[in-house]
Amino acid sequence: MLQLKNVDVCYGSFKALNNISMTVDTGELVVLLGANGAGKSSLFNAISGLNKPSAGDVEFEDRRLNGLKPNAIVSGGVVQCAEGRKLFPHMSVLQNLMLGAYVHRRDRAGNKQRLNEVLELFPILEDKAQQPAGSLSGGQQQMVAIGRAMMSRPRLLMLDEPSLGLAPLVVKQMFEIIKQINSLGTTVLLAEQNAFAALKIADRAYVMENGQLVMEGDQETMLGNEQVRRAYIGA
Ligand code: ATP
């Protein structure tokens, strides 16, 4: 479904991504592990069109994404839920969710159906629909951010650090919902520092260090790998 071939991204003279090649297959839940500054967000931005690769190719469903504008990439089925939620705090929860439906604005019936599906995933948001998004708890705001991304009807959903700053119980709930989104048919690429919880729901994972992918494996291999355990799980 998604294929990166020898992708480089530079910020001035600094090479943030170095020769990245990776794949995500239809239906998979793939995790990208890496410490702060490893390059996870740079990689996501290279896929979603916010960063322009200085070398290499990004392909989605056999279509080249390099050079396309971010809104064209969203319309094409690749949606990023950025680190830090980036909600409009003074707008209501419902208005924030509906912003995600902008790319399908002519399909009112489809958007209504999608909204119902999103509210089924996050029932608490139905009670909070008219409240300003900024008045919600951190976990609930993260739900709005993921819900808004789902309103764009992605075939590939990229989630950048969705558990960041959340209480442990909420983190657990968040990972359950991400797994559910994947089980319902959306392919997921998940960048996380919360390695253990992320690997527990993953099919496969890549490890990124200093802008390079240094390891790849399925869930079992990664959870059993001594180096991964020491560096990312702390056990
Ligand atoms: P984090 O989880 O902290 O966001 P990350 O793994 O997502 O980390 P990136 O944000 O992709 O990492 O950053 C990779 C490297 O690129 C870091 O050294 C960072 O300082 C640098 N970097 C990121 N954005 C820019 C930018 N706009 N200009 C210059 N350097 C940048």
From TrEMBL:
Source species, domain of life: Bacteria
Pfam families, per database record: ABC_tran
Alphabetized Gene3D superfamilies for the sequence: P-loop containing nucleotide triphosphate hydrolases
GO BP, sorted A to Z: L-amino acid transport
Residue ranges occupied by any ABC transporter domain in the UniProt entry: 2-235
InterPro entries named among the record's database cross-references: AAA+_ATPase, ABC_transporter-like_ATP-bd, ABC_transporter-like_CS, BCAA_Transport_ATP-bd_LivF, P-loop_NTPase
Membrane spanning residue stretches: none
The keyword Hydrolase appears for this protein: no
Keywords from the named record: Amino-acid transport, ATP-binding, Nucleotide-binding, Transport
GO molecular function, one term: ATP binding
Family named by the database record: Belongs to the ABC transporter superfamily.
Name of the molecule in the record: Branched-chain amino acid transport system ATP-binding protein
Organism: Marinobacter zhejiangensis
Species classification: Bacteria, Pseudomonadati, Pseudomonadota, Gammaproteobacteria, Pseudomonadales
